Amino acid sequence: MRLFLIGAAALALIAMGVPFGPAQADGGTGDAADARLLFGDIDNRALKYEFLVDEQRVGIGEGRIRKVGEARWQVDIRYEIDVELLGVDVYTLHLEARETYEGARLVALDSDSTEDGEHHEVSGRADGDVFRYTHNGEEAEAVSDIVPSTELWRRQLLKRTRVLHVVEGEPFERTTEPAEDRRIEGPDGETVVLEGVYIETPYETATLWFDAEGLLQRAVVDRMGTTLDIRRMAMEEE
Question: Which residues are the signal sequence here (predicted)?
Fold first, then answer.
């Protein structure tokens, strides 16, 4: 069950009604305005999620967002997932990743993960009109507007269809379509409507639900016969 979250898990995606400018849609470098749309309202915040199978918690994840320069943002992602069945490990994934964005463009990625006992390292940097990276020492390149598979936590990032898997080290295309909205009870007992989006990739399928700010609230991921329920726990100040 190779997760493409948190987006996230990561953690990890903007339905604020303001799209990327043409440069970003075509893989441009972005600017301060685009970066603020993606990260400005969650600067110095930590998004935390729990992972469940059959209502039992099997892992946690978090994404921490920081501004580290003019139009430059850093996202640190960590999650640990351990699925057991009758005392036997069915699936494990421990991952730490750091992503750096210049405007709305990914300019650096470093990921270290162990999945089902196999260790993976992905490290890459933007270089002109391509993104050059290594996976377990093997060199490769991807398109300049690539996004890492952890970046599902902000609705707007789903506009990017070309994705780099942070464990497999493989670029792939994803498709999205609207899904049924979900209604949950808010903190004051009010009804909150979450926007649903269905995603399909070569690795898994998922339905994601986003709040009015375009942040991931819930997700259901299906991979290799396992259904993983992802729920946002909190958004904390750093």
Answer: 1-25
The string of pLDDT tens digits covering residues 4-38 is 443 433 433 322 222 223 333 333 344 566 666 67
210 Cβ neighbours under 8 A, 6+ residues apart: 13, 15, 155, 194, 195, 197, 216, 217
Question: Which pTM was predicted?
Answer: 0.81
Q: Are 39 and 218 in contact (CB under 8 A)?
A: no
CA–CA dist 135, 124 (Å, integer): 9
Quote the CA–CA distance of 88 and 108 in Å, as a whole number: 37
**What span, in angstroms and rounded, lies between the C-alpha atoms of 1 and 4?**
9
What amino acid occupies position 158? Answer: L
The rounded percent of the chain whose pLDDT value lies above 70 is: 81
Q: Are strands 162-164 and 56-69 parallel, antiparallel or unpaired?
A: unpaired
Q: How many other β-carbons are positioned within 10 Å of the β-carbon of residue 140?
A: 15
